[in-house]
Amino acid sequence: MVDVLSQNEIDALLAALSSGEMDAEELKKEDTQKKVRSYDFKRAVRFSKDHIRSLTRIHENFARFLTTYFSAQLRTFVQINVVQVEQLPYDEFIRSIPKMTILNIFEAEPLEGRMVLEVHPNVAFAMVDRLLGGTGTSPSKIASLTEIETIVMERIFSKAFDSLQEAWKTVIDLQPRLEALETNPQFMQIVSPNETIALISLSTKIGDTTGMINLCIPHVVLEPIMPRLSVNNLFFSPKKTRAPEEMEVLQERLHRAKLPIIAELGTSQVTVREFLNLAAGDVIALQKPIDAGLDIKIGDRWKFVGTPGTVKGRLAVQITDIVAEGEETNDE
């Protein structure tokens, strides 16, 4: 990316060139020289900036859905926001989280492989305390999970994956499923230590308790759908095609739809006084020649021209012409 200089930097550069502190020829030589950038193969760049932006958008929705879900479950103030989306080796992620933490290992078909939702103990135990009738505080020292605490956490985090499914539905229809709940990162090895992962960090506040929720997604899991994570494809929704059976049902319903048919002899305007004085045998002059056809309307649209008559003693109209689209009525 080309660096853009501020106005102050441009003024300082021009002043240095004018005073002789810098030589323009030397600057040209520096530009022509090849620039070498170091590359760490242990931190391989697998996700482009486009992918990172797409993951950020997806998980901003995830954070919003999680906020709604936990607020309803815990009945207290919950705020969850995306802090950072980055890529780093899996080993670095393991070393960055606490030695005792809540690790929700899950799979999400049709993707192959396992992912991890890591929840800081302060946040997890505040949730448990709130669900069990407390105020939502976290113990100062956490040694291990009891059987009851484990069951409560499994239930609340299992349903939290519904929010992940909803956030990803614009890209792929995931079916997340909790596989296991661990507390020691050293016992969790879902990919090789040097495998690149996407780490989505969510800042979480529950009442007065704050902490982080980290979503670890290995690159090898997302690799089959990487093209879909481009900005061009992220918000593209293919047109829905209907099955032949659906089309037949739709056509049948259209054929049975009822529409009003109106045959107008013509129109006229009279005053209120004339209308009140109408009596049997009076004649109302219509604004249409006597030899002009009747306007036949389907709903409120003029579609046909016809002539009046009778069929088996009943009034009827015979269609004599089809009105072209855009024509006006033949009233004069």
State the gist of this model:
With about 325 residues, the chain is of the alpha+beta class. About 35% of the residues lie in helices and about 25% in strands.
Write the layout of secondary structure elements.
Blueprint: H1 7-19, H2 24-32, H3 49-74, E1 78-89, H4 90-96, E2 102-109, E3 114-119, H5 121-131, H6 147-168, E4 175-182, E5 196-206, E6 209-218, H7 219-222, H8 231-234, H9 244-256, E7 261-264, H10 272-276, E8 294-298, E9 301-311, E10 314-322
Antiparallel strand pairs: 1-5, 2-3, 2-4, 3-6, 5-6, 7-8, 8-9, 9-10
Helix pairs in contact: 3-6
Overview of this protein structure:
The protein is elongated and about 100 Å long. It has ten helices and ten strands. The strands form two sheets. A six-stranded antiparallel β-sheet has the order 1-5-6-3-2-4. A hairpin with a 2-residue loop joins strand 5 and strand 6 (209-218). With 332 residues, it is α+β, with helices and mostly antiparallel strands. It has helices at residues 7-19, 24-32, 49-74, 90-96, 121-131, 147-168, 219-222, 231-234, 244-256, 272-276; strands spanning 78-89, 102-109, 114-119, 175-182, 196-206, 209-218, 261-264, 294-298, 301-311, 314-322. 21% of the residues are buried.
Question: Which features would summarize this protein structure in a list?
Answer:
four-stranded antiparallel β-sheet
